[in-house]
Write a structure and sequence with these properties.
The structure is a single chain. The protein is elongated and about 65 Å long. It contains eight helices and 14 strands. Helices cover 42% and strands 24% of the residues.
Length: 223
């Protein structure tokens, strides 16, 4: 099922949109604050984001810029009462793909969502994220706090293995097997230790990359 995150602090509007889109087989997760939505995006990416402009803890255009800095192709639609031409232009300049003004017809919103899905494909599926770290698998690009990080091929493969197993311990043996042995390169255990240290340093020693002593490593969202 396609999943969509929706930032909306009006429970009536949020409930109406959620009920309608879920009848169309689109799973909708509603967030009442930008902080909650941002936390959800750091943990797992949806196929699309619906974003209100005026939220209790800030403006949607700021979060849209945050999204665009990390997930370049993740589709974003503004769904807001702010319909002045200057607001619409500002919404697109902040990185939105579409802009729907309230009040709106649910059928029209669904058509806009479907049209954007057709153009973007499963853009959300090309990203992995944990905390401030994001990986764009299509471009083989790693960012931390929206800044590109240059990794060696081995460092990238180690990070990829950890990110794909986020929330689970990846043993040292599994990393050695998947990153080195699969390519016929047999190395000693110290090589992995050095590689992870370099990776940590390049990523600014992120708290979400945990060492499980004598076992391995785990990527873990920081709540």
């Amino acid at each position: 099922m396609t999943e969509l995150y929706y930032a909306e602090d009006d429970p009536d509007i949020a409930g109406m949109v959620k009920a309608y889109l879920e009848r169309k087989d689109i799973k909708v997760s509603v967030y009442g604050t930008l902080a909650d939505l941002k936390l959800a995006l750091a943990q797992r990416l949806p196929s699309m984001v619906l974003l209100d402009w005026n939220m209790p803890d800030g403006r949607g255009d700021g979060l849209c810029r945050w999204i665009r800095g990390r997930f370049k192709e993740l589709p974003v639609i503004f769904l807001t009462v702010r319909g002045d031409s200057a607001d619409i232009v500002s919404g697109f300049e902040s990185g939105a793909d579409d802009y729907v003004v309230k009040p709106f017809a649910l059928e029209v919103l669904y058509s806009r969502v479907q049209a954007l899905f057709r153009r973007s494909g499963n853009a959300g599926g090309q990203y992995l994220s944990c905390g401030e770290i994001a990986m764009d698998l299509n471009r083989m690009l790693v960012t931390c706090k929206a800044e590109e990080v240059s990794l060696s091929a081995v460092e990238y493969q180690v990070l990829l293995c950890l990110m794909r197993n986020k929330g689970r311990i990846v043993t040292r043996e599994k990393l050695l097997e998947q990153v080195w042995d699969v390519n016929g390169n047999y190395v000693n255990d110290n090589t992995l230790t050095v590689t992870v240290k370099r990776l940590r340093d390049k990523l600014g020693k992120p708290l979400c990359l945990k060492t499980v002593r004598s076992v391995g490593y785990r990527m873990e969202d920081m709540l």
